């Protein structure tokens, strides 16, 4: 199963442990986490469901391309990292 | 007198209390390290609200009930699904801002007859209402859907924003808003319909044909006299404006050493008395001759006097942003916070100031409660 990890900067606001999720895309992986922690959604996504401007998500070391619909594919063994972009200060 | 002062800063919320011996001391520090864009003490139930603008993680709103020890998260205003794609801007219109909350720039309680009602002014220009003390929010569509809104543009931020909300103390259904940059808007029916009421304002930063366009004015801050609500004061990008007829017509006033600034406060009982904190001009936002002063008028803007007793000697480069000046319910006590972290207080209408701190983070908002 894909493995999702959240950066320490997020933990300052909401404790979100590493998780194994069943999901074919980045968006589905996040939805699986939001189902367990709905309060996390607004920290990662904006009002339109897009990845926040100063957030970044990497799948197996590559930044995702679809920041609007989060449709990047994840493989069963993928490792997903959700981090803050330094552009946010 | 209000003996509690909220100071919202770039790096936290500080709450000062006034002691019987006259000293003001920081009693509480909250959200240290986080940008607090707005704070409010709801006078109807003493609930505290703090709006955060986290650089990475978006806007958050927290609430602390009177007597409670802990803060609790509130809902934040959320914009509805935007058209996909956003429409191309019309000729002369700025690009459409995404329908996504960027900042809570104003937070005001509804009237005393409207328990639980809160109004939030936001960037990118939406007005939101809560009927349950922040548990849920609804975008005011009558204003958001006005075609004129697409002509609004950002002032200091990329997108336009509502920074001033005045709820008429005589009639809670009467709202007056100020928008940077979108002029002054009023509703007399609880937000069901709106009119732009900026007649008389001038925008020298626009081409000559557009300078009197009411919909592109940049009021930096607007305040309403509680005892005489038909008197409104605006510190505008282009100077100082006053209306004595509820905003139907605005008169431009000229102050020394400058009419440029961001903040304005009006005496709650004396509509002709107001305070400003001048800077040179829009292209040089520092005190004139590096002399940091407050200007006060007591005659409706016919004359202004500089007040600086207790303020730092030149050179001083403090700038007071739009929510950085507040007056309490008596009209005698004012607080002022600068973008370089200075905090001052006066107990006599500005005749004498005391420095409460010179080393706070950049101050966004001061508020008594």
UniProtKB/TrEMBL annotation, chain A:
Q: What protein name is recorded for this chain?
A: Molybdopterin synthase subunit MoaD
Q: Which InterPro entries did the record assign? A: Beta-grasp_dom_sf, Mopterin_synth/thiamin_S_b, Sulfur_Carrier/Prot_Modifier, ThiS/MoaD-like
TrEMBL record, chain B:
Q: Which GO annotations describe the biological process of this protein?
A: xyloglucan metabolic process
Coiled-coil ranges (or none): none
- Annotated InterPro entries: WD40/YVTN_repeat-like_dom_sf (IPR015943), Xyloglucanase_GH74 (IPR052025)
SUPFAM superfamilies in the record? Oligoxyloglucan reducing end-specific cellobiohydrolase
| Record-linked Gene3D superfamilies | YVTN repeat-like/Quinoprotein amine dehydrogenase
Q: Which PANTHER family match?
A: EXO-ALPHA-SIALIDASE, XYLOGLUCANASE (EUROFUNG)
Name of this chain's protein: BNR/Asp-box repeat-containing protein
Give the organism the record lists: Pseudogulbenkiania subflava DSM 22618
Query: Which lineage do the record's taxonomy fields give for this organism?
Result: Bacteria, Pseudomonadati, Pseudomonadota, Betaproteobacteria, Neisseriales
